[in-house]
Fold these 4 entries.
Entry 1:
Amino acid sequence: MALPLDPQPAPYDLAAFRALVGDVPLVDEPVILRKRSRDFFWYSPILNAELAGKSADIIAVPRHEADVIAVASACARLGIPLTPRGAGTGNYGQAVPLHGGVLIDMSGLAAIAWQRPGQVRVGPGAVMSDLDAALQPGGWELRMHPSTKRKATVGGFVAGGSGGVGSVGYGGLREPGNILAARIVTLEPEPRILELRGDAGWNWWSPSTRSTPPWRSATKRLWPTASSRSSSVRSPGRCHAISARSPRPARTA
Ligand SMILES: Cc1cc2nc3c(=O)[nH]c(=O)nc-3n(C[C@H](O)[C@H](O)[C@H](O)COP(=O)(O)OP(=O)(O)OC[C@H]3O[C@@H](n4cnc5c(N)ncnc54)[C@H](O)[C@@H]3O)c2cc1C
């Protein structure tokens, strides 16, 4: 079904939103709004009919955590729905703004904060294959990823995925030890930063929650690359990575 070319004015106070978020980059070009308001829901004929025409009113593109906080705060103050988006490869319409409002495009927050043996802390916008490419020269790789790895982001996988390549060996995404920590921005007038570790890091969302708050970074478990795995018995560092696969991983900074 074609999307309306001349949408009705948004019922939200977008002028006030713009004023509150200041210099956070915003996009309101209609073609981009329509494109980024979609994911792969069209695989389902039912969702394709139900979600046709759903669109954000404006897109925020945060450059850093302060921008995420500004957007979350403005949305909470003004009662505007906020929908996070990674790469939009989800196939159930999870990244579709059902009631318009603000779509927060997290793809710019892709930096690796740090890497240690068996662990990496990374921004939610990191594309998983880019992350692997950055890790592999050091002898590490993600031990599990979705089959959409070449486009999917870490944030979208954690919030909307379930498992994938590697899950036979290492379990699903929510298996203890696969996500070690998560940094969350709450959706409140005065957003809080929640730094969740261990079990809390992978168990912070609820299946009954329709949308998740935007989050800033995740610490993920790594695995030696296939080429280095064969020598893992001789390498203390790599043995540590294996033995660190306990249900309660060590705290990370
Ligand atoms: C052909 C095909 C194959 C697939 N194979 C797999 C597979 O093997 N395993 C699997 O698990 N999935 C699979 N998927 C689903 C999807 O590709 C993955 O789950 C992927 O990891 C989603 O990442 P994304 O960046 O595209 O997220 P998006 O689609 O952009 O978002 C997914 C969800 O996460 C939320 N979100 C995104 N970023 C954030 C953030 N920073 N903070 C809070 N919430 C956020 C969104 O609001 C949405 O609810 C597949 C999909 C297709 C079309």
Note: The chain has two domains: 14-107, 112-234.
Entry 2:
Amino acid sequence: MQSLNDAFKHCPSLTLPRREGRNKRRLLRHFISPSPIIVSLLIISLIMSSCQQKTEKFTTGEKKLKVVTTLFPLYDMAKNIGSDKAEVSLLLPPGVEAHSFEPKPGDILKINEADVLVYTGKFMEPWAEDIIKGVVNKDLIVVNASLGTKMIPAAFSDSAEPAESLDPHIWLDFDNAKIMVKNILKAFQLKDPVNRNFYEQKAKDYTNKLTELDTLYKMTLATCKDREIVYGGHYAFGYLAKRYGLKYLAAQGISPDAEPTANDLINLVEQIKKDKIKYVFYEELTSPRIAETLANETGAKMLQLNAAHNLSKNQFDQGLSFFDILKKDLDNLKIGLQCQ
Ligand SMILES: [Zn+2]
């Protein structure tokens, strides 16, 4: 077996990911916790794969584009734009809560072997920038899907969220989602110009579906008797509520990591009683216990509102799309807010 020193000799330009601050501690945990042998093997494979990387800039139009995405909406967009000309993967394993996800060494290898990496932005994936700085594959095109989107300030409820944070749930404003599609399209066309018209048409189809969904939301939500979403989860639906003129109250800030205080919950219970709220919504892939507490205290019923960060294994097996999730959400909003 080749030693680490040998590998460096053959590939002197290798740099490992730079790790800083909170991400440094998180990533170090991943690198250090397995046995040193496994870590060395992983590092060597990283070195070898980077040394063997072909340096050709563009594909010929015959090879499938290798695309790595970090979040389900990006995966769904990339899969549809790339269709049979791209091999798209999602870093998040099925059922994993997106905000608490941290990449493993195997994920870093996957990124190094890809043609295109698509991530949402630094507020959704705080680990991404350090990984990108450490990427050794010089031909990788990195797409920050949030570029050009209109972002709103994050609702912060604790010190873990700095005041300058922006709300990362940009895909829940369908105009922003269209900009994300454009950003992905540009990268595909740059990497595989032979198929640029093909990707353009697929992106257009996806954008048209977003327009249809937006119209359906506008028409349905304009008819609701109640106009207040109470969410027993994190602040994921700020964009959606703003777009359709709804009031939005969430028990947690922009990440489900932060626990609501007893006072936050008491205030929400009072608000639900005062506004005679009939349904409390709960989120996907985390325990619904906050919503349960609110429902038990107020007699409200519960309905799911899925922000589509990721899918459960079952949903993946069923092949659910971003549009399937958002249409189900609209069905539940229709019941919960008493729309026609
Ligand atoms: Zn979220």
Note: Residues 209 and 215 are 10 Å apart (CA to CA).
Entry 3:
Amino acid sequence: MIPNPAQPFGSKILHMNSAQNEGTGLLENPPLLTSTTAHSSLLNPEYPESHDHRILIVDDEAAVLNLFATYLSETYSCETAANAQEALDILAREPFALVVTDIQMPGLSGIELLRKITEYYKDTAVIIISGIARTQRVMDAIRVGASDYLIKPCDLGALTISVERALERRMLLRNASRYKQDLENRNTELARQKRELERLQAQVLQAEKMASLGQLAAGVAHELNNPAGFIYSNIDLMKGYIERLKRCLFDYDRLALVPEAAEQIRAIKKEIDYDNIVGELDSILSDCYVGAERIRDVVQNLRLFSRLDEPAVTRIDLNEGIEATVRLLPGYYKSGSIRLVRDYGDVPQVNCYAAQLNQVWMNLLVNAAHAIDSAEGEVRITTRCNDRTVVVTVSDTGAGIPSEQLSKIFDPFFTTKPVGEGTGLGLSISHGIVERHGGRIEVESTPGRGTTFTISLPVDADLEVAASN
Ligand SMILES: Nc1ncnc2c1ncn2[C@@H]1O[C@H](COP(=O)(O)OP(=O)(O)OP(=O)(O)O)[C@@H](O)[C@H]1O
Ligand SMILES: [Mg+2]
């Protein structure tokens, strides 16, 4: 028989002491509390998951169990268990949205079952139905996590409302926790995107700065190239001409002059400091020659470093690029306190944005020199090729990097240098450039011992693809 909610099985609290109903929970009197509206509101419930309308009813009294199951099965999918342990076994096999349980049962009590459910099946709501109507008990059950506490014999309408509310509350809680999780995920993603954006912004800024600096350097180099070239070659010519003029002068010197002319020449020689001039001419000329040679080298290195007169993507020998960069840093590497060891291997040419890679070597070499600072130390550059990958290491015997800073050094604007000395962009730019080449940049450091940066670059990088990534 399916009970009619209008003829309730019992009513809440008002009939809790009806002695004649203990056991079956049936009421003689008409109900004081019924609910049909609550029942009808559940006719079209929305259950996103199959177990959202699954209810497990637990009671050691078969009559009550069957009655509740039959009644609730009109709307929900119900299963029954005769005790708490059986209920736990069923819960372990499949999920339930709600457990409706008696309190007093042989073995585990309903409260112990409630505790286990709140601990292990957080997504399952629990309604306690008990013959005992002590306020403290009700409060304890609610505190442990029960959605509701009904007193036997209870009204079927009240049961309906209670079940409906428990399921609604469960859905609300679940949606709230999903929204919270979703918001947290979005927040994390936003924070990640913000960091990425800042990194890209910094890179674009620096790249623009470097591009204009590079253009400037290449422009200056270009303008200096011709005058430096003719100073250099004219000095060479001049050296030969002066040798010839000196020969002529020395021959004149040996000629016997009339005393008046001889006196006049002697006076002129004295006035112009002839002996010293002739003696110094050679060394002045060779100083000029060395100076002109240096200007020519700097100009050539600037052109090589900026590589603006070459196509953006080109195959180059990394050893050459590193060497051109080193030659632009005499302020750091010619002063004598830093020993520079170049251990260049036989490496194949690499497909790359040459000017950008030179920027990487520049950043690493300047950082290494800064790390050694005023102390004595060594910077070692090695290049090797493994399996179509060129591996460049730049290691120094400088101050090293504390482990808590290691994860930050590639972040834009991270610097330990005083304001005005470092922008904190060198490594983040270098990281971006190496990534653009489909390569990797790694660091190992021991505070007090030194640091090694290892850059691995594929020999045949597909730069169009890498750049669009
Ligand atoms: N070889 C190294 N030894 C020790 N610390 C280093 C080394 N290279 C980098 N660092 C640390 O990493 C930080 C970030 O380096 P990065 O090159 O990005 O910026 P920076 O050198 O401080 O400034 P910028 O390069 O913009 O002038 C440095 O401030 C320094 O603390
Ligand atoms: Mg730097």
Note: Residues 1-45, 465-469 have pLDDT under 50 and may be disordered.
Entry 4:
Amino acid sequence: MMTTAKIRQILNKRGLKVTPQRAVIMDFMMRTHSHPSAEAIYEAVKDALPGLSKGTLYNVLNTLVDANILNTVVLEPGAIRYDANVSNHHHFIDMDTGQIHDIPWDRVQNLFNAPGEGFCVADYQVNFYGVMAQNSPKRPKPEQP
Ligand SMILES: [Zn+2]
């Protein structure tokens, strides 16, 4: 578990109180790199937070997103994933495994002016869809018998 002091510091800096729900969900999100859905987060934290409702989970996630502690990745309308990496970056979605990998921001050339004149772009995010090369270290290892 991430130190309570660190979580307290992050929440306090943004004017948020430390609640058990926020602390446990933040701890999970800061340790995972899997860009989980709300459903996957619920499965991961429900044992640590008995009685957690989906409504409370969504409230906590929305609060953390509003406070810029978490980011959202929209894969398709309605399919939101959560990301504790709030620095600017893009994503590669592995169509074989569904895994989402971070792609450094500077790998994609500046696209702020790409939509053309009259469009004032405030932010953007690029999702790449494909498969990992056979020899990629990021490819999940086959299960050993
Ligand atoms: Zn990411």
Note: The radius of gyration is 17 Å.
